[in-house]
Amino acid sequence: MARHAVLHRFYTSKPWVTFRLNLIAERGNVCERCGNRIARAKDIIGHHTIELTPENVHDHTISLNPELVELVCFDCHNKDHRRFGYQGMKEVYLVYGPPLSGKSTFVKQQMGRGDLVIDMDRLYAAVSMLPSYDKPDNLYSNVVQMQNTLLDNIKTRYGKWHNAWVIGGYADKYKRERLTDDLGAELIFCDVSKDECLSRLQQDEDRQYRQDEWQGYIDKWFESYTK
Length: 227
What we know:
alpha/beta; His-Me finger endonuclease fold; 2 domains; 4-stranded parallel sheet; 6 strands; elongated
Protein backbone atom coordinates (compact mmCIF):
# COMPACT_ATOMS: atom_id res chain seq x y z
CA MET A 1 0.00 0.00 0.00
CA ALA A 2 1.38 3.44 -0.94
CA ARG A 3 2.62 5.73 1.81
CA HIS A 4 -0.16 8.31 1.38
CA ALA A 5 -2.83 5.61 1.37
CA VAL A 6 -1.56 4.23 4.70
CA LEU A 7 -1.62 7.66 6.32
CA HIS A 8 -4.99 8.59 4.79
CA ARG A 9 -6.52 5.43 6.22
CA PHE A 10 -5.27 6.41 9.70
CA TYR A 11 -6.48 10.03 9.50
CA THR A 12 -9.98 8.88 8.49
CA SER A 13 -10.14 6.14 11.12
CA LYS A 14 -12.56 6.31 14.06
CA PRO A 15 -9.76 6.20 16.72
CA TRP A 16 -8.08 9.30 15.22
CA VAL A 17 -11.32 11.22 14.64
CA THR A 18 -12.43 10.57 18.23
CA PHE A 19 -8.97 11.37 19.60
CA ARG A 20 -8.82 14.71 17.75
CA LEU A 21 -12.32 15.78 18.84
CA ASN A 22 -11.49 14.94 22.46
CA LEU A 23 -8.35 17.11 22.24
CA ILE A 24 -10.39 20.03 20.89
CA ALA A 25 -12.93 19.61 23.70
CA GLU A 26 -10.12 19.66 26.28
CA ARG A 27 -7.96 22.45 24.83
CA GLY A 28 -10.44 24.68 23.03
CA ASN A 29 -10.50 26.05 19.49
CA VAL A 30 -7.29 28.09 19.64
CA CYS A 31 -4.17 27.49 17.56
CA GLU A 32 -1.41 26.34 19.90
CA ARG A 33 1.21 28.00 17.70
CA CYS A 34 -0.06 31.50 16.92
CA GLY A 35 -2.87 31.79 19.49
CA ASN A 36 -5.53 32.70 16.94
CA ARG A 37 -9.06 31.46 17.52
CA ILE A 38 -10.32 28.94 14.95
CA ALA A 39 -14.05 29.31 14.34
CA ARG A 40 -14.85 25.86 13.00
CA ALA A 41 -13.72 22.60 14.56
CA LYS A 42 -13.15 21.08 11.11
CA ASP A 43 -10.45 23.71 10.48
CA ILE A 44 -8.42 22.66 13.52
CA ILE A 45 -5.56 20.38 12.50
CA GLY A 46 -4.07 17.80 14.80
CA HIS A 47 -0.36 18.16 14.03
CA HIS A 48 2.02 15.37 15.08
CA THR A 49 5.29 16.77 16.41
CA ILE A 50 6.88 13.47 15.35
CA GLU A 51 5.98 13.17 11.67
CA LEU A 52 3.86 10.13 10.95
CA THR A 53 5.17 7.56 8.50
CA PRO A 54 3.92 4.12 7.43
CA GLU A 55 6.48 2.70 9.87
CA ASN A 56 5.21 4.49 13.00
CA VAL A 57 1.57 5.35 12.27
CA HIS A 58 0.32 2.17 13.96
CA ASP A 59 2.39 2.83 17.08
CA HIS A 60 -0.25 4.54 19.20
CA THR A 61 2.33 5.80 21.68
CA ILE A 62 3.20 8.16 18.79
CA SER A 63 0.10 8.55 16.63
CA LEU A 64 -2.43 8.76 19.49
CA ASN A 65 -0.25 10.34 22.15
CA PRO A 66 -1.71 13.71 23.26
CA GLU A 67 1.75 14.91 24.30
CA LEU A 68 2.89 14.58 20.68
CA VAL A 69 -0.07 16.30 19.01
CA GLU A 70 -0.64 20.06 18.68
CA LEU A 71 -3.88 21.72 17.60
CA VAL A 72 -2.97 24.26 14.92
CA CYS A 73 -4.53 26.40 12.19
CA PHE A 74 -3.97 25.88 8.46
CA ASP A 75 -1.37 28.66 8.18
CA CYS A 76 0.80 27.33 10.99
CA HIS A 77 0.48 23.79 9.68
CA ASN A 78 1.56 24.84 6.18
CA LYS A 79 4.51 26.78 7.59
CA ASP A 80 5.62 23.76 9.56
CA HIS A 81 5.49 21.53 6.48
CA ARG A 82 6.93 24.25 4.20
CA ARG A 83 4.22 24.05 1.58
CA PHE A 84 1.80 26.30 -0.32
CA GLY A 85 4.29 29.17 -0.47
CA TYR A 86 5.73 28.73 3.03
CA GLN A 87 9.18 27.52 2.00
CA GLY A 88 11.01 29.56 4.64
CA MET A 89 14.75 29.94 4.96
CA LYS A 90 17.10 26.97 4.80
CA GLU A 91 18.89 27.07 8.15
CA VAL A 92 22.38 25.58 8.39
CA TYR A 93 24.12 24.44 11.58
CA LEU A 94 27.75 23.39 12.00
CA VAL A 95 27.92 21.11 15.03
CA TYR A 96 31.48 20.62 16.24
CA GLY A 97 33.41 19.23 19.19
CA PRO A 98 35.74 16.39 20.20
CA PRO A 99 35.10 12.73 19.41
CA LEU A 100 32.40 11.19 21.62
CA SER A 101 31.10 14.59 22.68
CA GLY A 102 27.55 13.73 21.57
CA LYS A 103 27.40 15.64 18.28
CA SER A 104 25.39 13.04 16.37
CA THR A 105 23.08 12.45 19.34
CA PHE A 106 22.39 16.18 19.55
CA VAL A 107 21.56 16.41 15.85
CA LYS A 108 19.24 13.39 16.01
CA GLN A 109 17.32 15.12 18.80
CA GLN A 110 17.06 18.46 16.97
CA MET A 111 16.71 17.59 13.28
CA GLY A 112 13.49 17.11 11.38
CA ARG A 113 12.53 14.61 8.72
CA GLY A 114 13.73 15.99 5.39
CA ASP A 115 16.77 17.74 6.85
CA LEU A 116 20.18 17.21 5.24
CA VAL A 117 22.88 15.79 7.54
CA ILE A 118 26.58 15.58 6.63
CA ASP A 119 28.50 13.35 9.02
CA MET A 120 31.91 11.93 8.08
CA ASP A 121 31.35 8.79 10.15
CA ARG A 122 28.08 8.07 8.35
CA LEU A 123 29.70 8.71 4.96
CA TYR A 124 32.40 6.18 5.77
CA ALA A 125 29.70 3.67 6.71
CA ALA A 126 27.81 4.38 3.48
CA VAL A 127 30.75 3.49 1.21
CA SER A 128 32.33 0.72 3.29
CA MET A 129 29.33 -1.06 4.87
CA LEU A 130 31.37 -1.08 8.08
CA PRO A 131 30.19 0.25 11.46
CA SER A 132 30.48 4.03 11.73
CA TYR A 133 33.36 3.76 14.21
CA ASP A 134 35.48 1.74 11.74
CA LYS A 135 36.97 4.18 9.20
CA PRO A 136 39.49 2.65 6.75
CA ASP A 137 42.23 5.18 5.93
CA ASN A 138 42.32 4.16 2.26
CA LEU A 139 38.77 5.47 1.75
CA TYR A 140 39.50 8.91 3.19
CA SER A 141 39.86 10.72 -0.17
CA ASN A 142 36.59 9.24 -1.45
CA VAL A 143 34.73 10.25 1.68
CA VAL A 144 36.14 13.79 1.58
CA GLN A 145 35.05 14.10 -2.06
CA MET A 146 31.51 13.08 -1.09
CA GLN A 147 31.54 15.53 1.80
CA ASN A 148 32.74 18.39 -0.43
CA THR A 149 29.99 17.72 -2.96
CA LEU A 150 27.35 17.86 -0.25
CA LEU A 151 28.89 21.00 1.25
CA ASP A 152 28.66 22.63 -2.18
CA ASN A 153 24.96 21.70 -2.22
CA ILE A 154 24.56 23.59 1.04
CA LYS A 155 26.53 26.63 -0.17
CA THR A 156 24.32 26.94 -3.24
CA ARG A 157 21.17 25.87 -1.35
CA TYR A 158 20.73 23.15 -3.97
CA GLY A 159 17.93 20.68 -3.39
CA LYS A 160 14.68 20.61 -1.47
CA TRP A 161 16.11 19.84 1.96
CA HIS A 162 14.74 21.76 4.90
CA ASN A 163 17.59 22.53 7.32
CA ALA A 164 21.16 21.25 7.09
CA TRP A 165 23.43 19.90 9.82
CA VAL A 166 27.19 19.54 9.33
CA ILE A 167 28.84 17.35 11.96
CA GLY A 168 32.58 17.25 12.56
CA GLY A 169 35.50 17.91 14.87
CA TYR A 170 36.56 21.25 13.34
CA ALA A 171 39.18 21.86 16.02
CA ASP A 172 40.96 24.60 14.08
CA LYS A 173 39.28 27.96 14.64
CA TYR A 174 40.31 29.45 11.29
CA LYS A 175 39.02 26.52 9.20
CA ARG A 176 35.88 26.27 11.33
CA GLU A 177 34.99 29.94 10.97
CA ARG A 178 35.82 29.99 7.25
CA LEU A 179 33.48 27.04 6.63
CA THR A 180 30.80 28.67 8.77
CA ASP A 181 31.01 31.83 6.64
CA ASP A 182 30.99 29.84 3.38
CA LEU A 183 27.88 27.91 4.42
CA GLY A 184 26.07 30.77 6.13
CA ALA A 185 25.88 28.50 9.16
CA GLU A 186 25.35 28.87 12.88
CA LEU A 187 28.00 27.30 15.11
CA ILE A 188 26.97 24.83 17.82
CA PHE A 189 29.74 23.62 20.13
CA CYS A 190 29.40 20.33 22.02
CA ASP A 191 31.53 21.42 24.95
CA VAL A 192 32.67 18.21 26.65
CA SER A 193 35.89 17.75 28.61
CA LYS A 194 38.64 15.37 27.57
CA ASP A 195 38.10 13.29 30.70
CA GLU A 196 34.42 12.87 29.86
CA CYS A 197 35.23 11.84 26.27
CA LEU A 198 37.72 9.25 27.53
CA SER A 199 35.21 8.00 30.09
CA ARG A 200 32.61 7.52 27.36
CA LEU A 201 35.18 5.67 25.29
CA GLN A 202 35.86 3.26 28.15
CA GLN A 203 32.14 2.53 28.46
CA ASP A 204 31.53 2.08 24.73
CA GLU A 205 31.37 -1.64 23.99
CA ASP A 206 31.37 -1.05 20.22
CA ARG A 207 34.80 0.53 20.42
CA GLN A 208 36.34 -1.88 22.95
CA TYR A 209 38.76 -3.32 20.35
CA ARG A 210 39.60 0.13 18.96
CA GLN A 211 40.17 2.07 22.15
CA ASP A 212 43.78 3.01 21.33
CA GLU A 213 42.70 4.30 17.90
CA TRP A 214 39.88 6.40 19.32
CA GLN A 215 41.95 7.67 22.21
CA GLY A 216 44.34 8.91 19.55
CA TYR A 217 41.48 10.79 17.87
CA ILE A 218 40.52 12.37 21.19
CA ASP A 219 44.11 13.32 22.07
CA LYS A 220 44.66 14.85 18.63
CA TRP A 221 41.48 16.95 18.84
CA PHE A 222 42.34 18.47 22.21
CA GLU A 223 45.94 19.11 21.15
CA SER A 224 44.84 20.99 18.02
CA TYR A 225 41.72 22.74 19.33
CA THR A 226 41.75 26.54 19.16
CA LYS A 227 38.93 28.69 20.51
